[in-house]
Amino acid sequence: MAVNVETLEKLERRITLTLAASEINSEVEARLKKLARTVKADGFRPGKVPMSVVAQRYGYSVQYEVMNDKLGQAFAQAANEAQLRVAGVPNITQKDEAPEGQMAFDATFEVYPEVKLGDLSTAEVERVTADVDDAAIDKTVDILRKQRRTFAQRPADQGAEAGDRVTIDFEGKIDGEPFQGGKAEGFQFLVGEGQMLEQFDAAVRGMKVGESKTFPLQFPADYHGQDVAGKEADFLVTMKKVEAQHLPEVTEDFVKSLGIEAGTVEALRADVKKNLEREVKFRVLARNKAAVMDALVKVAELDLPKALITAETERLVSGAREDLKQRGVKDADNTPIPAEIFAPQAEKRVRLGLVVGELVRANNLQAKPEQLQAHIEEMAQSYEKPAEVVRWYLSDRQRMAEVEAVVIENNVTDFVLAQAKVTDKALPFDELMTA
Asked: Which residue ranges traverse the bilayer (predicted)?
């Protein structure tokens, strides 16, 4: 029997579903009889509970389950016969009128849109590149040294300098009143390494043990503490301890402590360069991929299913709530998170997903087995035991699905770059790494 599909607007459709009342009643009765074999009730042995008691206790829930099952099957069959790609979950409501002996329902839903891909040769993409030079290697070696540095107390007549570790007591006031988080004793931080606001850091430099200083500090308007953001505070700081840092020399023992058996400076620099090149490759790819996706969306035309945007918004809200839990926020499940703040991001993700999906389908850009294997092996090279990492990925479907998604995005990126108007730009190493 042909399915009558009514178009309501753009992507919204409606079809009518009918179910035989006798079929529903028969299925409910069969499930209640099956339930009666195991149900327990006071005053009756298992399996001997009268059907009237079983029906009274479980009839409504069983009726609900049967209706859901039958409607789900009827909708799936109708959508399949009409060759509809349903987006989201249908809204099903019972109709007041129906043929005798039947129950009628309206199923309202959205379908996936037609995605019109424009001319990719008109898309403009900025493709970045970056190299690992000697300065980048030097900087990374210095970071490795800092990770293993030690500290020794400075003489009492020497003030704090950049790189020193200081221990201070401080108290801040706004309009003469203390504020939450504005006081601490025995507080440690490293001078000149961005751990404190620049004004605070600058005020502490040069201070000697036992000295106190009062200075004004203007909190940035976008400061994470909303109670003090944009306000000016007066801080009283007392220096308790000043410790100078000592960086280890790049000796054979130092190099070997990093797991490089050769123990030479050359071997260290070669290992650092190899790791940096791998990191640069992934960052460049991520940057170019983002540029391609932005360009791809601009040359595509499509309507967006509201159901998909709603589902994606809910997923983002759930992720934000989970992030709060990971940060130790109490009552994260009850913390108000306005869904509307995620709506633009959800809309962008849905749009991009539909466009990419169409491009992949139309141009056979699916991930090939050899691509998946190569990608996993490349990622595994940054770990101590690559073979174990490869096995870890291959043993889990969810992890493999994530790898497949990345490889497909890489295929899309390569495909678009081969056709678009590409402008190449060489990025300094530091700019790429701090972006």
From this structure: none
- Written as six digits, the tokens of 59 are 């009839």
Q: What pLDDT, on a 0 to 100 scale, did the predictor assign at position 48?
A: 80
pTM: 0.73
Per DSSP, the residues of 330-355 read TTGGGS---GGGGHHHHHHHHHHHHH
Q: Which amino acid is at 33?
A: K
Structural element, H or E, at residue 9:
strand 6-9
pLDDT of residue 382: 82
Query: Rounded to an integer, what distance in angstroms lies between the CA atom of residue 378 and that of residue 374?
Result: 6
**SS3 for 406?**
helix
137 vs 289: CA distance, rounded Å: 26
pLDDT of residue 224: 84
Same fold, 150-246 and 264-434: no
pLDDT of residue 328: 82
Residue 124: half-sphere exposure toward Cβ, Cα within 13 Å: 1
Q: Say yes or no: domain 264-434 is CATH 3.20.20.140.
A: no
Q: Residue 363's pLDDT is what? A: 95
Q: Which range is least confidently modeled, 50-59, 81-90, 249-258?
A: 50-59
Rounded Cα distance between 298 and 231, Å, is 42
Any bridge partners for residue 152, and if so which?
Answer: 244
Backbone angles phi, psi at 229, to 5 degrees: -55, 130
Percent of the chain residues topping a pLDDT of 90: 80
Instruction: Name the residue ranges covered by the structural domains of the chain.
Output: 6-111, 150-246, 264-434
With b for 16 or more beta-carbon neighbours within 10 A and e for fewer, the 3-25 pattern comes to eebeeeeebebebebebeeeebe
Tokens coding 369: 């087995």
pLDDT at 400 over 60: yes
How many CA atoms lie less than 13 Å away from 156 in the CB half-sphere? 2
Half-sphere exposure of 171 (CA within 13 A, CB side): 4
- pLDDT tens-digit readout, 118-173: 999 999 999 999 999 999 999 999 999 999 999 999 998 999 999 999 999 999 99
The Cα 50–Cα 36 span in angstroms is 8
Cα(379)–Cα(384) distance, rounded to whole angstroms? 11
Q: Which of 348, 329, 223, 227 is nearest to 337 (CA)?
A: 329
Tokens standing for 423? 């402008």
The DSSP call for residue 44 is B
Fold of 6-111: Alpha-Beta Plaits (3.30.70)
As assigned by CATH, the class of the 150-246 domain is alpha beta
Tokens, residue 433: 């790494």
Q: What is the mean pLDDT of the chain?
A: 92
